[in-house]
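USER: For my understanding, would you kindly supply a protein sequence with its structure tokens?

ASSISTANT:
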Amino acid sequence: MAIIPGTEERRWNLVGPAIVLTRALHLLPPETAHRLAIWGLAHRLVPGSSPDRWPRLATRLCGLNLPNPLGLAAGFDKNAEALPGLARLGFGFIEIGTVTPRPQAGNPKPRMFRLPAAKALINRLGFNSQGLAQVRARLADRDPGWGVIGANIGVNRDAKDPIEDYVAGLNGLYDLVDYTTVNVSSPNTPGLRDLQRRAHLGTLLGALVDTRSRLAGPARPKPILVKIAPDLEPDDERAIAEVAIDAGIEGLIVGNTTVARAASLVSRHRHEAGGLSGAPLLAPSTAQLRRLYHLTAGRLPLVGVGGIACGADAYAKIRAGASAVQLYTSFIYQGPRVVDRVLAELDALLARDGYSDLRAAVGTGT
């Protein structure tokens, strides 16, 4: 994608205000700031960047061509409201959701907490979602220029049969997105993480793969990925790897927020219930990624998530076995500039180590 003459100057004219706006948003309660950010992105009030400015970073994930390996994780744009602006920022792919079949409000407020000294967040949002109908309506107007879009699907809190909810999510969004992520790892919906157990996960993935076969017909099926928790025992990780491969899904996202709180975590909010994300998750999530890479023996593409705030963090994930990476919390703290920063630094690190293709670096640190 060529940069149109003059657009680079206009882009930088917006960067300064974007930085100021990011800092101003941090003066507001987290969820209020988040809603304002979504509004601004929906109205394209952000600097533009091209996702393919670094040819070395072009890659493939689960059969999808990506201009670069950096994605936006689910949880930021839960209802596909912000895609007009998010698609301008240079991400290689964007994941919306988590989307539940029926609208639900989620947990009582306050339910988001900043831990600025730790560059972290705690949330217990609880799958607050406008539901499939609203999200479908927005995705129906999707601009082809927005690139690769995935949907993260979950269950309603009062679901009688969780599998039916996941199947409904796949049925409802399959034709409008490029891949689907099955969220069985949020700590904020009671009982959800039990679906990661071997028997439950096998049944769930079997139902989703059968549904996908019907939806795809003679066409090549779109990828299904599973997002797992960082708080798993070794036997659980082994079981997930085996079940995922046997079920025939395309990848794992490693991983979600953690319920663990390290003793070194200093904040007045450290004991709030919910999932912790951000810098404290970088080391443990990268170690888990490395374990899953060995357990899957390179047979299943992995997406590395947790604590990415710079190119070195992304490179560590890739060398630990990730074919692509996602960020969320650093986007909250750094604003739109984090995208170009991570990609430029990652490209420089690959060049330093003699890689002309990002894929050659995957798993080299294991």
Confidence is low (pLDDT under 50) at residues 1-14. Residues 7-25 form the longest helix (19 residues). The CA atoms of residues 233 and 239 lie 10 Å apart.
